[in-house]
Every structure is written in C-alpha cells, then in structure tokens.
C-alpha cells in the first residue's frame, strides 16, 4: 500500500520553498490561444476562468500565488475576525497572494523575480519566460505529460485511440475507421470538460469538428455506463519516491463537464487501481516529473479500469486533501462534496451568512472570487462536509440552497 503524502502546501509539493511562484490555470484569455503554442484551449467566460485561479489560495505555503484581480485574498481582503479565523486554522498553508490586472500583465511580476521558480500547469512561449525560470528542468515535460494524444506513452491501460492532426480531422477519411458512438478530445491540455465531445450522432461529430477545428485531436472508443470515475492525486518527490495524496470520485455532467468531487478523506484505492496510478507516476518520474499528478481512471461496467485523462498539476480536489487534518478534528470519516457555488452578495456577506457552518467545518471555502464591476455575486470553491453519509449531502445541499448558496457559478 502506498504511503500517504504528508505535505500540505504548493511550496512543499514542488520543493520551491520561499523561492517559488505558483500560477494556477488560465492566466490569459482565448485571444492568446494561437495554434502551435503551448496554451490551454477553452471556451469559458472570463469569470469562470478567474474562478479557477481561486481554488488554490489556502495551500500556497511559502510560495507566492499569482492570480488575476477579483480573487479574494483571505489574509488581506476580509475583516479582522475572518483574518484571524483563517490564520488560526491555515497559517502554515496561506502564502502571499499577488494579483495582476489581466492580459499579459502577470509577465511584469515574473520579470521582476527572475530567480523565482515558477510552478504552472503549462509552459509559456520562450520569448516571454525563459526555460530556467521554471521549477522543472524541462518545462516542455508539462505539455508532454498532459497531452491526451500521448497517454499510451505512460500507461498500458488506455482506451484504444487514434490521434489526428488538424488537417486530417477537418476531412472525412478518418471517419472510415470509427463507428458511432465515440469520443473526440482535444489532444493538447484542457480541463473542466472543455476539450471533450461525446459523439452519438453525425450532428455531434460535425459540431466537434467545428469546435475543435484547427487543433490536433484524439478519437477514442466510448465507454458508456461506467461504474466509477476516479481521480487519484499522487506526489512524486525529487528522488522519485511516490506517495498517495488522496482520491475521489469525480462529479461529471452528462455533457462531460467537471462539476466537482465526492471525497472520502479516509479512502484508499484498491490494489489494482493503485498499481495503475503508480505505473503512470513512475513513468512520469523517469522522465523528470516532480510534484502533483492527478490521474483520472474510470471503472467500466465489466469492472475493467481505464486511464482516461492526465492532469500533471494541482487538481480541483488537491486543496481538500492538503487540508485533510482540518476536517479530521471534527469528523471521524469526513465525506466531502466539492465544487463551485454562487452567492448573491459580497464575500463578507457570504462568510457571515454561513459562519456557523464554517466554524463547525460543515462548509469549507478554499477560494473566493468577487468582481462588483461584473455583478454582485460571490463565486466560491468549497467543500460541503458530512460524516460518511452520501444522503446527508443531498439534504445539506438543499438546505444551503434555500439560504442562497447555489451550486455552480451561475454566470
């Protein structure tokens, strides 16, 4: 059985100490997503993308977290009582938060800190950030390991797939090799379901060709009626040691959108599932990977396990595994339902409304986003917690919704 990883900050996970700068996902917008560059491809709103950067504020540690304006800094933007609350519970995990205005303005901050080691979910064009600015010796490894078209390089448990360049995908000859239903995925790194299209009809195929036009894709067999969709977070240390951070079952919509996780903080994977995850992490370590990897594995109706998505970066579930000890002070076997929620009001109004639940650890916000120039809503990434009772989550969610905490971002 894998030993459990005991680190709880970005600086520990990526071995940067106080010399690290962490940039979460989506620091730029779709206008900058040019063919041939190592950028994420996405079709979400600016508000959604900025919400993603708020998911990791409580786990920076010694590292500085660089995020877009609108993200709420727990240590500065709240009133003294809430400052004290978060400092009391998360003082060792709360690093400095620095905000940039938008566009490429984050480059100015990075340029003023040339010695800092940058932790990012993707590298940038070399004319913007030099390769020696990253925590990895070879930052292109981030692209390689997150490439859905190269998953077979690191795992023997992939769903059979083929990869097509943009020109081939735009044509019709590739269709001769595939019978519906099947799945088309953007090969380059993407997330939140942005790069996935489940094709049941020819109209679905045409829509996917329009949506992913100009990009390299992979096509794989459709596995319907799967029994579970696991996300396993593993940690690879500098010496290659692999440890288990935690696991969850992902909440995925019918259109393959990521909606959050169900997390049992005391769960451990079966030997077979663990073996698949270790195989992938070991292959990544042999290539030079260091840090967190989140590996998505589904269990098909026949019980077979398939590796379906590489996430060599911090994952949406990672913060809750890192603050595991926080929940264990109140619950024997805490079960979490995580995801984005929306509240009509500013962050302090949200915190005061749900103060009893937060104090009792029934609610745990790890990231807040508020842009009054857009609307008066607070977007929050959080966990709802019960004592090992899935049915209780439903009751809790309904009760909180009646008080104004709505699931989803509600843009």
TrEMBL record:
Keyword Cell cycle set for record: no
Keyword ATP-binding in record: yes
Gene3D superfamilies, per database record: ATP-grasp fold, B domain
Keywords, comma-separated and alphabetical: ATP-binding, Nucleotide-binding
Positions in coiled-coil regions: none
GO molecular function, one term: ATP binding
All residue ranges annotated as the ATP-grasp domain in the record: 148-340
Transmembrane segments: none
Entry protein name: ATP-grasp domain-containing protein
Organism: Thiothrix subterranea
């Amino acid at each position: 059985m894998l030993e459990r990883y005991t680190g709880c900050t970005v600086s520990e996970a990526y071995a940067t100490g106080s010399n690290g700068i962490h940039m979460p996902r989506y620091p730029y917008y779709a206008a900058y997503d040019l063919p041939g560059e190592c950028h994420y491809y996405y079709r979400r709103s600016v508000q959604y993308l900025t919400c993603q950067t708020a998911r990791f504020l409580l786990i920076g540690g010694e590292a500085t977290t660089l995020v877009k304006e609108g993200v709420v800094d727990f240590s500065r933007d709240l009133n003294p009582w809430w400052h004290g609350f978060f400092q009391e519970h998360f003082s060792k995990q709360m690093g400095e938060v620095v905000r940039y205005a938008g566009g490429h303005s984050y480059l100015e901050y990075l340029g003023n800190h040339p010695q800092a080691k940058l932790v990012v979910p993707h590298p940038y064009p070399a004319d913007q950030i030099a390769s020696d600015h990253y925590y990895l010796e070879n930052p292109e490894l981030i692209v390689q390991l997150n490439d859905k078209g190269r998953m077979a390089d690191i795992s023997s448990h992939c769903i059979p797939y083929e990869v097509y360049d943009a020109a081939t995908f735009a044509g019709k000859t590739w269709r001769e090799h595939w019978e519906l239903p099947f799945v088309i995925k953007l090969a380059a790194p993407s997330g939140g379901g942005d790069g996935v299209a489940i094709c049941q009809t020819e109209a679905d195929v045409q829509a996917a060709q329009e949506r992913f036009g100009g990009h390299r894709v992979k096509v794989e067999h459709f596995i319907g009626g799967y029994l579970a969709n696991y996300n396993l977070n593993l940690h690879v240390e500098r010496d290659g040691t692999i440890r288990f951070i935690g696991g969850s079952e992902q909440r995925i919509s019918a259109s393959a959108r990521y909606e959050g996780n169900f997390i049992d903080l005391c769960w451990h994977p079966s030997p077979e599932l663990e073996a698949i995850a270790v195989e992938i992490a070991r292959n990544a370590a042999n290539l030079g990977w260091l840090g967190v990897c989140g590996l998505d594995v589904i269990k098909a109706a026949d019980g077979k396990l398939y590796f379906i998505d590489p996430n060599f970066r911090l994952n949406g579930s990672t913060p809750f595994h890192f603050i595991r000890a926080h929940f264990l002070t109140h619950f024997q076997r805490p079960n979490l339902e995580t995801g984005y929620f929306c509240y009509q009001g500013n962050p302090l109004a949200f915190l005061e409304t749900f103060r009893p639940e937060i104090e009792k650890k029934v609610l745990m916000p790890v990231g807040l986003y508020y842009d009054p120039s857009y609307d008066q809503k607070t977007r929050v990434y959080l966990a709802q917690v019960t004592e090992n009772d899935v049915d209780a989550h439903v009751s809790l969610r309904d009760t909180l919704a009646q008080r104004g905490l709505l699931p989803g971002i509600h843009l």
